[in-house]
Amino acid sequence: MTYSADTTQVGFVGLGRLGGPIASNLASAGYAVVGFDPDPAAGERLGSSAVRFIPDAAECATFSQVLITCLRGAGDVHGTLDRLREAGSLDGVEALLDLSTISPADSEGLARQLGKDGVAYLRVTVSGSAQAAATRQISLMCSGDEELYERCTPLLGAVGRGHVWLGAAEEAKAAKVAVNMLVGVGLASLIESVRLAEGMGIDRQRFLDVVAQTAVASPFFQAKTPALVNRDYTPAASLALMKKDLDLAVTASSDVGTPLPLTDLARALYTACDAQGWAEKDFACLDELYDQPDLLHGTGE
Q: HSE of 161 in the Cβ direction (CA atoms, 13 Å)?
């Protein structure tokens, strides 16, 4: 039986910038959704959404046939599940879909523990911003048991424009680490290109309009254009999360023996931004670093 809207109760833990819109879209598609977030303001951000916010993660899990987690990191995922396990709240959960960006090694450990709990585990990773999540324009990469993936296809289709199954183990988490590495390095190169063009007398907006007509044009570059033109770093994806993602990539590179010199440099740049207290700005705030050449010293400039 598939996890369709008319038969499935969903608990959603982690109603942040990404999780909140995804949970709301599930509810709009007819799923019965309860949500929990440690930040009480998350309930207020849901607005008129049909998601029922409850201030207790254990109650959220008790309600659920399918439990979805969308948290900042592996420690948050493991900590949450440990608390639910101790409360006995996982007993009725059939499947966990984890949307968090965590390392393949952490996900493998999660799979082993969930197997002992009798909970099926689908790794689901998200490609797209919070704005894309709100308009169901995210893409989903999945791995784990293929039959479970097939059962979850109505649910996945309710929140994104497409989804794909990559394999039976940690392929989705591995792909997400590599994709996010490309995002972080790609934005750094775009910013440097904008700065060079500006230095040669080309207006930012005009240059980015040119980029949009070239072979390197992408929806991601287009989405970041307003932030770079207006120097508005209201977070769509925070610098703290991008730095974490590049940390995951560098750790993975060490595990598999693949050198990442460009990523090492990009991580140093984002680390310099973090040291300025910009962690909760959008990671496009890297642009500001170029206004302070002394901060670039030591990053490999």
A: 10
**Is the pLDDT at 143 greater than 70, yes or no?**
yes
What percentage of the chain has pLDDT greater than the value 90?
A: 85
48 and 155 housed in the same domain: yes
* Same domain as 202, residue 72: no
Model confidence at 297, pLDDT cuts 50, 70, 90, reads: low
Nearest-CA neighbor of 290 among 198, 176, 195? 195
- What is the rounded distance in angstroms from the CA atom of residue 172 to the CA atom of residue 300? 32
Q: Can you tell me the distance from the alpha carbon of 283 to that of 71, in angstroms, rounded to the nearest whole number?
A: 18
Distance of CA 115 to the CA centre of its chain: 24
Tokens of 252: 């993975």
Do 288 and 278 form a contact (C-beta atoms < 8 A)?
yes
Cβ atoms of 101 and 140 closer than 8 Å: no
Is residue 189 included in any domain, yes or no? Answer: yes
pLDDT at 130: 84
The burial class, CB within 10 Å (0-12 / 13-18 / 19+), for 41 is exposed
Given this model, what pLDDT does residue 301 score?
A: 47
Rounded to whole angstroms, the Cα distance separating 29 from 228 reads: 35
Side-chain half-sphere CA neighbours of 223 within 13 A: 19
Per-residue pLDDT, 300 = 53
Query: Which residues, at least 6 apart from 173, have a Cβ–Cβ distance to it below 8 Å?
Result: 101, 102, 103, 104, 107, 123, 125, 143
Domain that holds residue 178: 174-296
- With the C-alpha atoms ordered 60, 61, 66, 72, is the resulting torsion angle positive or negative? positive
For residue 298, the model assigns a pLDDT of 58
Is the predicted pLDDT of residue 232 greater than 90, yes or no? yes
Can you give the CATH number for the domain in which 263 is found?
Answer: 1.10.1040.10
